[in-house]
Amino acid sequence: MTLTQDDVLRRTGGREVKAIVFTAEQIQQRVAELGAELTRAYPDGDLLLIGLLKGSFLFMADLVRHVERPVVVDFMVASSYGDSTISSGNVRLLYDPATDLAGRHVVLVEDIVDSGNTLRRLLALLISRRPASLSVCALLDKAQMHSPFEELKFVGFEAPPAFLIGYGLDYAEQFRHLPFIADLA
Ligand code: IMP
Ligand code: MG
């Protein structure tokens, strides 16, 4: 489906975007491939996908429909600010998964890796809970912005060094609902 500029403006409430970086069709195709990669990577054992909210909500919903083996889904909400938070180490968790990680293959599902700081801290916390294995599946990776992560085994797309919105990604809580990913600038 080709989107006209009007289609975009109707969804953004009149805010123009610089470019559509990944179309809804490209995203859906790549997410299906990632689901197949996950299926192949975990032939046995208990698999737990933990989505980091809010950014991963659409990605997770689409991804699990392409995982063709048993899987358990949970979410995590992390924040660097706010008062009513539970602090675990360096990460402030607004919601910490109730699911037991011990002995399970755990995959942290992220919208985008930028500096990698959030991820680094969450991985340290999750590894302390003794999963059988721990990996990251990120839809987008700004690979030039961080040193390589051994755990980052599943990546949808390498992201350009731009501020992206849509498909879960927000700018001041706006634009998460867009079915495509756009460069806001
Ligand atoms: P990091 O800790 O620097 O890797 O930041 C990762 C988080 O910052 C992501 O989970 C996003 O919520 C947010 N983020 C990073 N880059 C972008 C972007 O281009 N658009 C929207 N949010 C972004
Ligand atoms: Mg965000």
Give the count of structural domains.
1
Strand order of the largest sheet: 4-5-3-2-6-7-8
Hetero ligands? inosinic acid, magnesium ion
Number of strands: 10
Intertermini distance: 23 Å
Mass-distribution shape: globular
The tally of helices reads 4
Q: Helix/strand-derived class?
A: alpha/beta
Unreliable residue stretches: none
Strand count, sense and barrel status of the largest sheet are: 7 strands, mixed
What does this protein structure show overall?
The chain is an alpha/beta fold. It has a single domain, classed as 3-Layer(aba) Sandwich (Rossmann fold). Helix content is 24%, strand content 31%. It has four helices and ten strands. It has helices at 5-12, 24-41, 57-64, 117-127, and strands at residues 19-22, 47-53, 72-79, 86-88, 91-95, 105-113, 133-141, 152-158, 164-165, 181-183. A seven-stranded mixed beta sheet has the order 4-5-3-2-6-7-8. The chain has a three-stranded antiparallel beta sheet with strand order 1-10-9. α4 links the parallel β6 (105-113) and β7. α2 crosses α3 (57-64). It is globular and about 50 Å long. The model has no long low-confidence stretch (mean pLDDT 92). The chain binds inosinic acid and magnesium ion.
